[in-house]
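Consortium newsletter contribution from the modelling node. Members have asked for a concrete example of what our holo predictions look like. Here is one, prepared for the adenosine-5'-diphosphate complex that several groups have been discussing at recent meetings.
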Amino acid sequence: MSNADNESWSRVKERLRVEVGDDIYSSWFARMDLEAIDDGAVRLSVPTRFLKSWIQSHYAERVLACWQAENEKVTRVELIVRSAVLRSALAKPKPELETAAVGGRFPSNNGNGRPLHVGDGNGHEALGGSPLDARLTFESFVIGRSNTLAHAAAKQVAAAKRSDPVMFNPLYVHAGVGLGKTHLLQAITWAGNAVGERKLLYLTAEKFMYGFVSALRTQTALAFKEALRGIGVLVIDDLQFLQGKSTQAEFCHTLNALIDAGRQVVIASDRPPSELESLDDRVRSRLAGGLVVEMGPLGEELRFEILKARVMAARAHHPSFDVPLPVLGYIAKTVTHNGRDLEGALNRLLAHNKLTGHAVTLEMAEREVRDLIRPQEPKRVKIEDIQRVVARQYNVSRSDLLSSRRTANVVRPRQVAMYLAKTLTLRSLPEIGRRFGGRDHTTVLHAVRKIEGLVGNDMALAEEIEILKRQLQE
Ligand code: ADP
Ligand code: MG
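And here is the predicted structure:
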């Protein structure tokens, strides 16, 4: 391949990263390589079959479009799996052992009709975790109002001894992007492994999907149980990325097996269990059955403390790096979005300071971080909040809204609440139906249309809805 091809490929990847965002990019595309370009056909490779089918079913058009934006002659993108070597090295299936060891909990197939466990192998090695960042420890985690509970629970999990009863299982932490989930989970893993009593395995959901799950598939049920036995605490990050029926089935077995065996499970996600729409009900309720803690946005004080701690840490390597407190105050006040932007802001000051030798001043900070100051994001509206606010407004109870009662004084508020759920959240119709006492999606659709139709003519109703929206979005 020519240099020009490689350069185009770099640009295509950049474009893709911008379009799908860093998280998705690193989950799915980071390991994609360019193999060849000829006659308008681009051949790309990925390391696993799983990634191949995932990208094919979810991102094929995106990838093609990104190529076409770079080079209009491209008409086709072909994906291949490059790890043939690894696959052929796997041992042959052992069906007798498989059925013998399957027992009650582990199903004999993964929902695709394919055997769940084939081959043999050393589970401990195969179940390797995701890499940990040495900086993400409890020592560097700053505690504030929004994360006190999550932090306390995390500490507890990390310090627990093998003989201690498991207090809450799973521990489920949820928060928006950049609010410290990964930091907290890795801190648990570092601290727990330092105690040395139990083995803690930290996995991103992505790693779980195509590392752990494929490792499971290459093992006998016996080897799998054996491997699980070696894990004291399973830590899974970014559960919202767990996708696909068979992966979920395997996640569910793993979860059940570990919890039933008294092993600790820790999970982080960007939303509460009830909003993990693609998971099935049993998994959701199992997830909700432990301790579910939300970490809220970082308050100004917490942002300030995080910045101070960061500067201290940076000074270990750059002793001359000095950021006056008013500058930290300014950043804490204005860069409100999340922990990543705080980190980004300080990195810029550090870079500027190192490269130009100029001291960090307020003027310089204002210039450097200008683009990190974002307008307030619209608030994330929750279905529960909608139900609560609507119930209060119409003087009915929330359980009335969820009930099957059909008297006029509950039907209208219920329709209004469903309408707001559809317009103010990203939830799908079936999901909204489920959250309104298990109604069908057609009922929700009917309610949405009904209210849409009414607000055109009924000024009073239109105004009521405006008021509700304002209350919810404040
Ligand atoms: P998430 O996984 O929730 O998206 P991260 O854990 O990656 O967020 O956090 C983003 C950045 O903010 C990291 O650099 C992290 O160290 C920092 N951060 C977030 N919360 C805290 C905290 N409470 N104390 C110290 N640093 C934090
Ligand atoms: Mg994270």
